[in-house]
Design a protein that fits this description.
alpha+beta; 5 helices; 40% strand; elongated
Length: 275
């Protein structure tokens, strides 16, 4: 059960107060009894905490995966791949995939890796992999415009031709996840120059990320990477044409939790949202 840091803070404060009170009273025995009581109280409160709703990281994945894939052939290493697999493969809106000798389902408990990059003025290309121990779906765009999809796990793997634009490739990965990434808060950051922790303003809005005096246009990055784990957390990495980079970590509720920045020159920040 995931617990919000904000909810843990008062429990930690309660524990500390009870322990301090015990130590200042009579003896170590009293302190021990009070500490045990505090631990019990914390456990009871924690058990009664409601589960917070998790963010929907998977909607863009399902929207991209949905469709009909043609010209499929078996490319796996098993005996079943000795003959051509029939086509097409169909991925339904709910993520269920079937056809061409394979069957599986794209679900929100899978690990996701998205990479969108561009070289100079060339059109961006996208690579997407969604998998768990039972099933894998992959989409790949090549520099020459060719697009392919892969389905299944070894030894039964099917490769299909992609004839339609890949939805996640039509805009920046930021734009696909702006509904979660847009935020305005205060981050506590370790300044690499002074080695002090400073409160720094953090904001993402209308495609622009601002952290301190660093600004990133998230729609013009030369590379973006999104990683979504089965633990319901997401990381976003962006690299600018002038080789600055940012990495944003979102918690299961879709809120920014940590941030790493490599800015101009030797400027760097390691940041975390204040509890």
């Amino acid at each position: 059960m995931s617990k919000s840091p904000q909810r843990h803070a008062p429990l930690m404060f309660l524990t500390a107060m009870l322990v301090l009170s015990a130590c200042s009273d009579k003896s170590k025995e009293v302190a021990s009894e009070n500490t045990k009581a505090a631990d019990t109280a914390v456990e009871e409160v924690a058990d009664n905490e409601p589960d917070l709703p998790t963010a929907d990281y998977f909607a863009p994945i399902l929207a991209t995966a949905e469709g009909t894939y043609s010209e499929c052939e078996a490319i796996g290493t098993g005996a079943a791949t000795e003959s051509k697999a029939g086509g097409p493969v169909v991925v339904a809106a709910n993520g269920k995939a079937s056809g061409a000798g394979i069957a599986g389902e794209v679900t929100a408990d899978m690990d996701v890796l998205l990479v969108r990059q561009r070289e100079g003025n060339a059109a961006p290309t996208l690579a997407m992999t969604v998998q768990n121990e039972k099933f894998m779906l992959s989409l790949m765009e090549h520099d020459d415009g060719k697009k392919q999809a892969g389905f299944g796990m070894q030894p039964n793997v099917v490769q299909c031709k992609v004839t339609k634009p890949i939805k996640l490739s039509s805009q920046s990965l930021y734009a696909s996840y702006a509904y979660l990434m847009d935020a305005k808060t205060t981050i506590k950051c370790l300044n690499s120059g002074t080695l002090n922790f400073d409160d720094v303003a953090y904001q993402v809005a209308k495609g622009v990320l601002k952290i301190g005096d660093e600004t990133y246009d998230l729609n013009t990055l030369k590379m973006e990477t999104v990683n979504i784990g089965s633990d319901k957390r997401m990381s976003y990495l962006g690299q600018t044409p002038d080789d600055r980079s940012i990495m944003v970590f979102l918690d299961p509720q879709g809120k920014v939790s940590n941030l790493q920045v490599n800015g101009k020159g030797d400027k760097a920040f390691a940041c975390a949202v204040r509890p």
